[in-house]
Amino acid sequence: MVTGANSGVGRSTARALAAAGARVVLAVRDPEKGRRAAAAMPGTTEVRHLDLADLASVRAFAAAWNGPIDLLVNNAGISAHSLTRTADGFEATFGVNHLGHFALTILLLEHLTGRVVTVASQAERMAQLDLDDLGWEHRPFRQSRAYNDSKLANLLFTAELQRRLTAAGSPVLAHAAHPGLVATGIYQPGIRRLADVPWKAAVALLAQKPDQGALPVLYAAVEDLPGNSFTGPGHLAHMRGAPQLIPRSATAQDPELAARLWEISERLTRATSPV
User: Has 147 been annotated as catalytic?
Assistant: First the structure.
């Protein structure tokens, strides 16, 4: 099961899994785009509607699922240009990238038999996560910081999920993956400020194609790795190259912060973990 599988890294991940013989569920916000993506994939695919910006959609998706899930890839992600909100009133970037995937994973956990791979980013190193103002009610909104915060949340979620799975004696593993610098829609906002020009040039010159960006995700999905592994490209400061284990910030390894974020996420989503 791959969220956001109609384009970018998600589509490349889904296509590679389907080509290897997996039955792949494309969980997408736009089913028509999902069907077009699936039509170009080999093997067995299925398209299901999932809007991570709406917890009612997440709950409906999970409630409709029957049977085991060998692999859940939490791939979908956004980087909102301005302060916008999900259907439940959460800041959109945090709401989709973390809270939507948190709820989805928790609600599907009873079906999971193998692994959860959450697509994070080394952008987490620049995060300044404020658990007392996750909705940006008291701070001026900054697109880059909101995205960085959501990626730190992805790593903290992975760490706490693995801790709970291990404590419960579950064989399910939780991993995080950093695709590197990839030429996808999330990096195509247009030039809004003069400061965007060098960044756009760097993306144009250095970014990998989505098929390459999917390699760390696939590595986390199938390689023999310890729980709570973080995978990413091996070269150019982990921006390009073959996948390997990569480091994360000290903040992303803070067990108290991870536990507190988990408790807040349960309260906000009303999704209570069975582990």
Answer: yes
